[in-house]
Amino acid sequence: xxxxxxxxxxxxxxxxxxxxxxxxxxxxxxxxxxxxxxxxxxxxxxxxxxxxxxxxxxxxxxxxxxxxxxxxxxxxxxxxxxxxxxxxxxxxxxxxxxxxxxxxxxxxxxxxxxxxxxxxxxxxxxxxxxxxxxxxxxxxxxxxxxxxxxxxxxxxxxxxxxxxxxxx
Length: 168
Description:
The structure is a single chain. This protein is mostly helical. 92% of the residues lie in helices and 0% in strands. The protein has helices at residues 3-12, 15-23, 25-35, 44-167. The termini are far apart.
Protein backbone atom coordinates (compact mmCIF):
# COMPACT_ATOMS: atom_id res chain seq x y z
CA UNK A 1 0.00 0.00 0.00
CA UNK A 2 1.30 3.39 -0.92
CA UNK A 3 1.56 6.40 1.30
CA UNK A 4 -1.37 8.16 -0.43
CA UNK A 5 -3.58 5.13 0.04
CA UNK A 6 -2.75 5.01 3.77
CA UNK A 7 -3.56 8.74 4.11
CA UNK A 8 -6.86 8.24 2.26
CA UNK A 9 -7.84 5.41 4.62
CA UNK A 10 -6.90 7.52 7.67
CA UNK A 11 -8.95 10.42 6.35
CA UNK A 12 -11.96 8.23 5.78
CA UNK A 13 -11.60 6.45 9.13
CA UNK A 14 -9.96 8.76 11.75
CA UNK A 15 -11.39 6.58 14.51
CA UNK A 16 -8.79 3.93 13.55
CA UNK A 17 -6.02 6.24 14.82
CA UNK A 18 -7.87 6.75 18.10
CA UNK A 19 -8.27 2.98 18.55
CA UNK A 20 -4.58 2.42 17.80
CA UNK A 21 -3.46 5.05 20.31
CA UNK A 22 -5.82 3.69 22.98
CA UNK A 23 -4.36 0.26 22.41
CA UNK A 24 -0.78 1.45 22.80
CA UNK A 25 -0.68 4.67 24.91
CA UNK A 26 3.08 4.36 25.39
CA UNK A 27 3.45 4.98 21.67
CA UNK A 28 1.72 8.37 22.09
CA UNK A 29 3.87 9.25 25.14
CA UNK A 30 7.04 8.29 23.25
CA UNK A 31 5.95 10.33 20.27
CA UNK A 32 5.33 13.34 22.50
CA UNK A 33 8.72 12.88 24.21
CA UNK A 34 10.48 12.74 20.86
CA UNK A 35 8.65 15.68 19.34
CA UNK A 36 8.57 18.04 22.34
CA UNK A 37 11.53 20.42 22.72
CA UNK A 38 12.21 19.74 26.41
CA UNK A 39 15.12 22.08 26.42
CA UNK A 40 12.74 24.90 25.53
CA UNK A 41 10.05 24.32 28.15
CA UNK A 42 9.79 26.89 30.93
CA UNK A 43 10.83 26.11 34.48
CA UNK A 44 9.10 27.31 37.65
CA UNK A 45 11.58 30.14 37.89
CA UNK A 46 10.87 31.12 34.30
CA UNK A 47 7.14 31.16 34.98
CA UNK A 48 7.62 33.20 38.20
CA UNK A 49 9.78 35.64 36.28
CA UNK A 50 7.10 35.96 33.58
CA UNK A 51 4.40 36.47 36.20
CA UNK A 52 6.50 39.15 37.90
CA UNK A 53 7.15 40.79 34.54
CA UNK A 54 3.42 40.71 33.71
CA UNK A 55 2.56 42.11 37.16
CA UNK A 56 5.08 44.96 36.77
CA UNK A 57 3.79 45.72 33.26
CA UNK A 58 0.22 45.60 34.51
CA UNK A 59 1.07 47.99 37.36
CA UNK A 60 2.86 50.32 34.94
CA UNK A 61 -0.10 50.23 32.59
CA UNK A 62 -2.46 50.84 35.50
CA UNK A 63 -0.45 53.85 36.69
CA UNK A 64 -0.18 55.17 33.13
CA UNK A 65 -3.90 54.69 32.46
CA UNK A 66 -4.80 56.36 35.79
CA UNK A 67 -2.51 59.27 34.99
CA UNK A 68 -3.89 59.52 31.47
CA UNK A 69 -7.45 59.28 32.82
CA UNK A 70 -6.76 62.14 35.23
CA UNK A 71 -5.28 64.24 32.42
CA UNK A 72 -8.28 63.53 30.21
CA UNK A 73 -10.64 64.30 33.06
CA UNK A 74 -8.94 67.65 33.67
CA UNK A 75 -8.97 68.40 29.95
CA UNK A 76 -12.65 67.52 29.69
CA UNK A 77 -13.41 69.58 32.81
CA UNK A 78 -11.60 72.58 31.27
CA UNK A 79 -13.51 72.14 28.04
CA UNK A 80 -16.81 71.96 29.90
CA UNK A 81 -15.87 75.09 31.84
CA UNK A 82 -15.03 76.85 28.57
CA UNK A 83 -18.30 75.67 27.06
CA UNK A 84 -20.15 76.82 30.16
CA UNK A 85 -18.50 80.27 29.93
CA UNK A 86 -19.39 80.48 26.25
CA UNK A 87 -22.93 79.42 27.00
CA UNK A 88 -23.16 82.11 29.67
CA UNK A 89 -21.82 84.69 27.19
CA UNK A 90 -24.36 83.62 24.59
CA UNK A 91 -27.09 83.66 27.23
CA UNK A 92 -26.04 87.19 28.28
CA UNK A 93 -26.12 88.29 24.65
CA UNK A 94 -29.62 86.89 24.26
CA UNK A 95 -30.70 88.66 27.43
CA UNK A 96 -29.24 91.91 26.08
CA UNK A 97 -31.07 91.40 22.80
CA UNK A 98 -34.26 90.63 24.70
CA UNK A 99 -33.86 93.87 26.70
CA UNK A 100 -33.26 95.82 23.49
CA UNK A 101 -36.38 94.33 21.92
CA UNK A 102 -38.33 95.20 25.05
CA UNK A 103 -37.03 98.79 24.80
CA UNK A 104 -38.03 98.93 21.14
CA UNK A 105 -41.44 97.51 22.03
CA UNK A 106 -41.86 100.16 24.75
CA UNK A 107 -40.88 102.86 22.25
CA UNK A 108 -43.45 101.57 19.79
CA UNK A 109 -46.07 101.55 22.54
CA UNK A 110 -45.16 105.17 23.39
CA UNK A 111 -45.39 106.12 19.72
CA UNK A 112 -48.75 104.36 19.48
CA UNK A 113 -49.99 106.38 22.48
CA UNK A 114 -48.71 109.58 20.87
CA UNK A 115 -50.46 108.73 17.62
CA UNK A 116 -53.64 108.05 19.57
CA UNK A 117 -53.26 111.47 21.24
CA UNK A 118 -52.71 113.11 17.85
CA UNK A 119 -55.71 111.24 16.47
CA UNK A 120 -57.84 112.48 19.39
CA UNK A 121 -56.63 116.04 18.74
CA UNK A 122 -57.55 115.74 15.08
CA UNK A 123 -60.98 114.44 16.05
CA UNK A 124 -61.38 117.42 18.40
CA UNK A 125 -60.27 119.78 15.63
CA UNK A 126 -62.68 118.10 13.22
CA UNK A 127 -65.52 118.67 15.71
CA UNK A 128 -64.46 122.31 16.08
CA UNK A 129 -64.37 122.76 12.30
CA UNK A 130 -67.83 121.22 12.04
CA UNK A 131 -69.06 123.59 14.76
CA UNK A 132 -67.40 126.54 12.98
CA UNK A 133 -68.86 125.48 9.65
CA UNK A 134 -72.31 125.27 11.20
CA UNK A 135 -71.81 128.68 12.82
CA UNK A 136 -70.42 130.21 9.59
CA UNK A 137 -73.21 128.62 7.53
CA UNK A 138 -75.74 130.05 9.97
CA UNK A 139 -74.13 133.51 9.81
CA UNK A 140 -73.65 133.42 6.05
CA UNK A 141 -77.28 132.38 5.70
CA UNK A 142 -78.28 135.37 7.76
CA UNK A 143 -76.02 137.66 5.70
CA UNK A 144 -77.48 136.24 2.51
CA UNK A 145 -80.96 136.87 3.82
CA UNK A 146 -79.99 140.38 4.81
CA UNK A 147 -78.35 141.06 1.46
CA UNK A 148 -81.29 139.67 -0.40
CA UNK A 149 -83.61 141.52 1.92
CA UNK A 150 -81.62 144.77 1.49
CA UNK A 151 -81.12 144.35 -2.22
CA UNK A 152 -84.81 144.26 -3.07
CA UNK A 153 -85.55 147.69 -1.56
CA UNK A 154 -82.30 149.06 -2.99
CA UNK A 155 -83.05 147.68 -6.42
CA UNK A 156 -86.59 149.03 -6.30
CA UNK A 157 -85.26 152.43 -5.22
CA UNK A 158 -82.73 152.46 -8.10
CA UNK A 159 -85.40 151.39 -10.58
CA UNK A 160 -87.75 154.12 -9.33
CA UNK A 161 -84.97 156.71 -9.56
CA UNK A 162 -84.18 155.67 -13.10
CA UNK A 163 -87.81 155.80 -14.09
CA UNK A 164 -88.16 159.32 -12.69
CA UNK A 165 -84.96 160.36 -14.33
CA UNK A 166 -86.08 159.29 -17.76
CA UNK A 167 -89.73 160.17 -17.38
CA UNK A 168 -89.48 163.26 -15.82
